[in-house]
Every structure is written in structure tokens, then in C-alpha cells.
Amino acid sequence: MIWIHILVFLGIFFFMEFMAWFTHKYIMHGFLWYLHADHHRKDHDSWFERNDAFFLFYAAVSIGFFLLWRFDILEIGLTIGLSIFAYGLTYFIVHDIFIHQRFKLFRNANNAYASAVRRGHKMHHKHLGKDHGECFGMLIVPFKYFRQEFLLNSKSQKTNSK
What we know:
- The chain is mainly alpha-helical.
- Helices cover 69% and strands 0% of the residues.
- It has helices spanning 2-31, 33-40, 54-70, 77-99, 112-125, 143-161.
- Helix 1 packs across helix 4 (77-99).
């Protein structure tokens, strides 16, 4: 029985990466662009962004699954709710803390994965409007960003060894 919960947790966690990509590309850069636009253009002085409201949707979904479990409607609801919560926490740590440095933590993380995630997000933010975007995911980035980081690191190591 525990294996089912582990598999569901991992499956939902990875499915949430697809959901983040989908909602980012088609909803945030679509009909709810007015909430996401201030994340691409800092046209405000507040630490908070309208974009921060998107977490409320996923928090509500997660809470909904907790309630389905709590009231004996869906036995696996706790696992699903915890998985959505875990993805949201991971997203917050990677996106808001690591990439955008809203809290000054993880500044010195400099491995190939971390650099590829940062590069992919930087390429996403080079587009200030809602159209012509790229790299809408968060944890899974296109392989080309890993290749670019590998090439940059190998050139840097050749230069330093001379």
C-alpha cells in the first residue's frame, strides 16, 4: 500500500511540472497575462507581484485534496495534496529564491543543472511581452541549456589551465 502512495506522490510531482509549463505558456502568457506581466516588467516598487496570485490556485487545489482525504471521500487525497504542496514549495525555492533572488540564498550554487535552469529562465525573461516566449518549464529545461553550460565550463577550464 505504501508503494502506491510513493508512486502517486512522484507521479503527481512530475505531472505538476507539465501543469506549470502548460499554465505558464497558455494561461499566464494568455488570458491572464495582466497578472503575469509585472513579473516580466518590473513596473512597480512592491516586493510582491500580481504574478504571486497564481500560487493561490494551486494552494486551493492542494487544500481541496487534503479535504477530500480528511472527509473520507478520497483515500489518496492526502498523498496528492502533499505532492502538489511539495511541487509548489520546490517551485518557490527554485524560482523565487534561487533564480530571482527574492531572498538572498543559494547565490553560489554553480553546477551544470543550476546553471542550465538559470539560463533557461533568463531566455524566458528576454521576452518582455506575452508573445514569442520560450522555456516555460521550471525544473525540466531543454537540453540545449545543459549543452551551453557544458561548453562554457569546458572553455573556462581550458583558459584557466593555460
